[in-house]
Amino acid sequence: xxxxxxxxxxxxxxxxxxxxxxxxxxxxxxxxxxxxxxxxxxxxxxxxxxxxxxxxxxxxxxxxxxxxxxxxxxxxxxxxxxxxxxxxxxxxxxxxxxxxxxxxxxxxxxxxxxxxxxxxxxxxxxxxxxxxxxxxxxxxxxxxxxxxxxxxxxxxxxxxxxxxxxxxxxxxxxxxxxxxxxxxxxxxxxxxxxxxxxxxxxxxxxxxxxxxxxxxxxxxxxxxxxxxxxxxxxxxxxxxxxxxxxxxxxxxxxxxxxxxxxxxxxxxxxxxxxxxxxxxxxxxxxxxxxxxxxxxxxxxxxxxxxxxxxxxxxxxxxxxxxxxxxxxxxxxxxxxxxxxxxxxxxxxxxxxxxxxxxxxxxxxxxxxxxxxxxxxxxxxxxxxxxxxxxxxxxxxxxxxxxxxxxxxxxxxxxxxxxxxxxxxxxxxxxxxxxxxxxxxxxxxxxxxxxxxxxxxxxxxxxxxxxxxxxxxxxxxxxxxxxxxxxxxxxxxxxxxx
Amino acid sequence: xxxxxxxxxxxxxxxxxxxxxxxxxxxxxxxxxxxxxxxxxxxxxxxxxxxxxxxxxxxxxxxxxxxxxxxxxxxxxxxxxxxxxxxxxxxxxxxxxxxxxxxxxxxxxxxxxxxxxxxxxxxxxxxxxxxxxxxxxxxxxxxxxxxxxxxxxxxxxxxxxxxxxxxxxxxxxxxxxxxxxxxxxxxxxxxxxxxxxxxxxxxxxxxxxxxxxxxxxxxxxxxxxxxxxxxxxxxxxxxxxxxxxxxxxxxxxxxxxxxxxxxxxxxxxxxxxxxxxxxxxxxxxxxxxxxxxxxxxxxxxxxxxxxxxxxxxxxxxxxxxxxxxxxxxxxxxxxxxxxxxxxxxxxxxxxxxxxxxxxxxxxxxxxxxxxxxxxxxxxxxxxxxxxxxxxxxxxxxxxxxxxx
Lengths: 497, 404
Prior knowledge:
The structure holds 2 protein chains of 2 kinds.
Chain A: H1 7-13, H2 22-28, E1 29-30, E2 42-43, E3 48-53, E4 58-60, E5 69-74, E6 77-82, E7 88-94, E8 99-100, H3 102-107, E9 114-117, E10 121-126, H4 128-136, H5 141-161, H6 170-179, E11 181-185, E12 190-192, E13 200-206, E14 209-214, E15 220-226, E16 231-232, E17 249-252, E18 256-262, H7 263-269, H8 273-298, H9 301-308, E19 317-321, H10 330-338, E20 350-353, E21 356-359, H11 369-373, E22 379-381, E23 387-389, H12 399-403, E24 410-412, H13 417-424, H14 434-437, E25 456-458, H15 470-473, E26 480-483
Antiparallel strand pairs in A: 1-2, 3-10, 4-9, 5-8, 5-10, 6-7, 6-9, 11-18, 12-17, 13-16, 13-18, 14-15, 14-17, 19-21, 19-26, 20-21, 22-23, 24-25
Helix pairs in contact in A: 5-6
Chain B: H1 9-27, H2 40-68, H3 81-100, H4 106-119, E1 127-132, E2 142-147, H5 155-177, H6 184-217, H7 223-247, H8 252-259, H9 265-292, H10 301-306, H11 311-323, H12 328-403
Antiparallel strand pairs in B: 1-2
C-alpha cells in the first residue's frame, strides 16, 4: 500500500465496519496524532494486512487451517468446493466489498472451500483475534452482517450436517434456516437444564458445550463434550411431554455460538404426516444411539478421567511411559539443544494414569483457548493445524498461560544472544565431570531494564522445521511417543511404540 | 519391566558375530583361555572385531553429546516454518489432483510428492509416504502422509547397538586374549573389560527394572519434582542462614543448631521453642518501652531492665531514645523501628526452623528415591570412567602391538 493510500477512509467505507466501536477500530488503524508512545500511526499490521492475488492464485485452500478473514477490496475471486468424489463445484463468487473466511474465523475449523482469484484482486486480511473482538460485539454492524451472511450462505449447509436433518429435503431445510435463531452463551452459562422441557434443537457453531447429569448419588457426571457441528436436544420434537425433557444439563465451556431451532418451527415445517413420521423415526434412532453410547462410556473409567481433564479436546498428546522412563532427562536436554534461546519447552508434568503420563506438551486443540485469549495476535494456527507463538508479538500479559487448559504455555525470560553467550561459558562447562574441574564463571548479573523486559509465552513447537521431534527422537528408552487422544480412551491398555 | 531392549535386531547381529568367532575358535581346535590356539590370524582378527564393536558402542555417546552440545549436523537442516507451510500447500494441491484422478500409480504420486518437497527445500526435514486409502474411513484413492525422516535413527536404537555390541566386544575380548592375567597390560585390559561389561549389565538391569522401581516409590511428587523441591528448600535455608549469621552472632548455640541442618532438626526445633519464648517476652517488654517514649514519665526504665537478657535490643532502644531526646515523636518512631527489626530477625529464625522442618518431612519421602539415585550415580561413576580408561588402554595396546 502506498503512503498516500487512505486506509482509514477505505475501512470506514466498508459497510461491515459502519458501527464498529472506536476501541476496536483502534486495533486496525491508529490515526496520526492519536498514537501512543510505543505506536506508530497507520495500519496495525499485527492485525490487518493487505494482499494482492494474481489471476488463478489460490487465496485459501480447502482443508487447510487458516483462520484469517478476507475482504475483497478490488477484484473478483471464486470459491470452489471439492466433494469426496473428487468433483469440484463453484459455490460463490466475491466482488468488491464482499468477504469470505468467516466460518473458519468463527469456528477455527479447516477451510470448507478453496478460493481463487479470477482477476488481479486486492484483499484485506483480518487476523482471528481482531475478527473475534469485532464479532463478539453483537451490537455492531459487523456481527449483524456476519450472522446475516452465515444464515444466507452457510446455515442450510450447516443444518444438513446435523444427524436429525439427514433425511430432510432441501426445501424444508431452507425453511428451517429462515426460522432458526442464532444465539450465544458465555463461559459457564447453563444452556439447558436436566429435567426441564426441551424447547429446541441446538447446533454448535463454535465453542464447547459440556453435557452432564446428576447421577444416583447426587454427583454431577459428565456425559460428553460437544464441539463444532454437533447437535443436541433432538427429543424436543417428540410429541409426549415426558419424552421431551432435557436428559442432560448443557453448560458452555467457552464462548459458544449456537443455532437454535425451536420446536414450534419443527411443527410448522414438518406438519404433514409423512415428513413428521420420518423425522420422529430419525429422532428415535438418534436417541437410542445416544443411550448406547452412554452405556459404553460409563463403563470406561479411563475415558471419564480424560473427559474430566479435557484431554479429549486435543488432537495430539505426548505420552510418557513411566515403566520405561529412566528419568535420565535426555528429553529435556534435547529440547534445550534445539531451541536457540535454550529454554526447554517440554515439561514432565501432566495427567497421570497408572504407568502413563500425558505430558503437558501442546495438544494443538481443535478450539485453542490460548489463541482466543490472546489479544495481540501472538498465537496463530498454521495451515497444518499447529499452534505457534509469534514471540515478537507477545506482550507478556500471560492470558494465554491461564487460558491453556493443559498448563502447556509458560512465561519465560527469553535471553538475547549476548546474554545467552555469556551464560553458556566454554565447551568444558558442558562436559560432565570436566565441568566440575573447569568451573564455569558466574554469568554477569542481568542488566537492569527498569522492569521493561517482560517474560514471553513459550510452548512446545513440535520442533517445527527440524527432521525430528527432539524429545521423542532422543529418548534412549522409547518412553515418549505422540498419540492421538482418541486412541487413549482405554489409556491403561495402550502400547507406546 | 521394560523389555524393549530384549527385542533387538542389533542383539541378533551381535550374537551372530559372537557365534561366528566362537565357531572359528572351535574350527581351530582351541579351547577357551588359550588365545585362539595361538593362531595369529585369529588373534589379529578377533582383536580388530572387538575394537570395531567397542567403537560402534562408543558412537552412542558421541551421538548423544553431539546433539546435546548442538554439534549435530541434523540441527543445521532446520528450515523456516514458512517453507513447511508452502510444501504443505503443495501437497494439498497434489491430494486434490489425486482425487480428480490425475495420477494413476503410487510411483507417480511418490515422485510428485518428492518434487513438491524438493521445490520448497524441505525434503531433508519432511518425507512423504503414499499408501492406499482406507475406504471404510472415507479415504478415497491414495493418501499422502508426511513424517520427519529421522535419518540417524532414534536414540533407543543406538542404545540397543551400544548395549549389544559392547557386550559382544567383551565376549570377543575373552576369545582374543583368553582372559590371560599374565602381564600388567593383560590384567588391566581384562579387568577393565570385565568391569565395563559387568557395570553395563547392571545398567541393563536398571534400565529394565529401574523405571518401575522409581514409579512405585513416587508418591504425590514425581522423581524430579521431589529433588527440585528439596533443592529449593535447601537454597532457601542457605539464604536465610547467610542473613542470620550476622544477626545471631551473639547466639552461637541457636545458630549452630540451625546450621547443623536437617539431620539435627529435632534438636533445633526443641531449642527454638525455648528461644522464641524468651524473644516473645522481650518483645512484650520492648512494646512497653516504645509506648512510654514521649510520655511525661519518660522511657519505661523498668521495662528496659526486664530486657536485660537481650542486651542488643536494649542497646538499640537506648540509642534510638538518646539520639532523639529532643523530639519525642521521632524517638518513639526510632524505638519502634528498633523493636520491629528485632521482631523481623526472630521471624527469620522461625522461618528457618519451619523450612528445616519441611525439608526433614520431605526428606523422609526422599529416602528411597535417594537410594535409587545413589545406585544410578554409582553405576554411572563406574561405567563411564572405566569405559574411557578401557578405550585409552586399547589404543595403547594396539599402538604397542603395531610398534613392536
